[in-house]
Amino acid sequence: xxxxxxxxxxxxxxxxxxxxxxxxxxxxxxxxxxxxxxxxxxxxxxxxxxxxxxxxxxxxxxxxxxxxxxxxxxxxxxxxxxxxxxxxxxxxxxxxxxxxxxxxxxxxxxxxxxxxxxxxxxxxxxxxxxxxxxxxxxxxxxxxxxxxxxxxxxxxxxxxxxxxxxxxxxxxxxxxxxxxxxxxxxxxxxxxxxxxxxxxxxxxxxxxxxxxxxxxxxxxxxxxxxxxxxxxxxxxxxxxxxxxxxxxxxxxxxxxxxxxxxxxxxxxxxxxxxxxxxxxxxxxxxxxxxxxxxxxxxxxxxxxxxxxxxxxxxxxxxxxxxxxxxxxxxxxxxxxxxxxxxxxxxxxxxxxxxxxxxxxxxxxxxxxxxxxxxxxxxxxxxxxxxxxxxxxxxxxxxxxxxxxxxxxxxxxxxxxxxxxxxxxxxxxxxxxxxxxxxxxxxxxxxxxxxxxxxxxxxxxxxxxxxxxxxxxxxxxxxxxxxxxxxxxxxxxxxxxxxxxxxxxxxxxxxxxxxxxxxxxxxxxxxxxxxxxxxxxxxxxxxxxxxxxxxxxxxxxxxxxxxxxxxxxxxxxxxxxxxxxxxxxxxxxxxxxxxxxxxxxxxxxxxxxxxxxxxxxxxxxxxxxxxxxxxxxxxxxxxxxxxxxxxxxxxxxxxxxxxxxxxxxxxxxxxxxxxxxxxxxxxxxxxxxxxxxxxxxxxxxxxxxxxxxxxxxxxxxxxxxxxxxxxxxxxxxxxxxxxxxxxxxxxxxxxxxxxxxxxxxxxxxxxxxxxxxxxxxxxxxxxxxxxxxxxxxxxxxxxxx
Length: 800
Prior knowledge:
With 800 residues, the protein is α+β, with helices and mostly antiparallel strands. It is built from 16 helices and 35 strands. The strands form eight sheets. The chain has a nine-stranded antiparallel beta sheet with strand order 1-8-9-10-11-18-15-14-13. Strands 2-3-4-7-12-17-16 form a seven-stranded antiparallel beta sheet. It is globular. The two termini are 24 Å apart. The relative contact order is 0.10.
């Protein structure tokens, strides 16, 4: 199978595309670029996962108190059915805990824009095309009657962007300008309306005080910017420089003023003087970020060759695409897979920092909602939900590093706030130095599911790769620390049942994005997602010990997880018109509108129930998933992954939802589905579409993977959906156990299977009838074929 993305999945736009959310997306996991077009210019917007406004307000640190004291006060405040909202102490406490998060910082700091001007009298923007194969954007122009192009590529090995106009043609680019983002910085207090007025008249934008133009000679321009820092000390100082080098001579721009007379010289703008003997135009933009005593002047001006960068990009993307490929009869599903996979590589790569909500794609206030931070109740994790089955586990490395970055503070919070061992991971976090969790308020900070959820994918990484050394060195410690905390939390006296039994309750807790603290804490115990993720964590910890050659029965912590697991309460259900369904917390109305698909949590992310569960359990979870009401905005990947796991995904409904959420740039945004959760009839249902690019939705490829192959149970199941997705083929998807699988579904059945074992072990695969294993001895039991494989061995299954 050809691994390169089919060209029909390239992202194309006709005519100018001036809005940020219309622009073509490029990136290397560090720097991100959004290419927009105006009738008079091509504009490149630069962002970076490492470059942030690092100011942080942590005045609440000494006011957090202890869990014991806060819990006691909350219990008194909500006793006898009282609402927490009427308690003066709690209102004042919440104001102190949420004050810091109410600040406009920390946040991603946009790195500015490059404006490539054209003369509209001679040049027209035809459109642009984003080529997914090697991450290349081509802007098409009609210049003096000839069709010419401008190609743009990001270097995979450095924070450099290169471009060139079509060789052999007169270049249509007449001017260049670097524009530091005018809407950021410590001194910016203008409202959006004030900014709009300032940009409307006359068109001049003064440089902010923190920005200095650099003298770089006749073929380059650049600026240096002192970035907002955590403190004013030299060690916290950090700077940004953006440097542009072009292959032609640059000169000051002369133009008439809107008021009459000559306009003043514009900072960081130059006209291009072409050499008539060598009129070709190439350019490079370098993003430099320095800390402490190092300054941008320590870095030489990059003069990268376009052809050299093109070859590096081609090699990098060839390796990336070779990991796996798919072909589907349904174009919308195939397109979603390739685009999601492409965009993932733009925002996250090995050796880079884990992206926040909007990754490395920002401009002005776009990409800064919720601080653009890490939300650990699914948003941060979701980006990685497709990388394991997609055979791109290396893309998960930045997340592992993020967990390690959070681990020391999480250990301290568990110890100082809860008085418990282990690590309690936060609701939100920033990629800047922190001495306290940004939002330790009980309404958000008591979502107990976030601790097992934070470390869950570390165990997945081992399951899919079988990398024992990585488990020992990087994966096990955070899993163990989370386990220590959850065991201690369940061993508290408050977790004991009040009926005299040994049953344990996860109490108190807060349902993710629901209810907060309720009267008598009625809806603050035994949340479905808390229970199922705690069971996942406990099982992962015991299995990790086994993988490391230790006997779980000889480790006291592991023994206690086994004892506690059987003492957890059963899941709560409610009667409905279709039968009993799971609900997110005992006492809940089954018609409540959820923010995330909580009723299906035992299927995913809990991975406790599946197609292999007893039939009554399967029927229960299928009803629960199908009947749950979702407000939209957090479900596009999540609920469809639950449905795919149970084989009940409706491909037509899924494609309709993809269409509803698709943006002109080829990504999928979060859109509201129904009112009367947190939203009402007056809420604009697309209000999130302009906030930025939600990188979590790039995991849409993971849903498509699950429609073709599943292995979370340890048994590989091919093309499992009840409603056929039509003819389909995939190559080199990764299964639990380190198996690399290829298969084809055609004419109503699976007709080809190939499996390679990376590290040896027993293959378990649910094979269609009349299929036999070639190349190895196989045994069959209950429809499952078992093959003992050695490292590197390949087996084929064919019809007998």
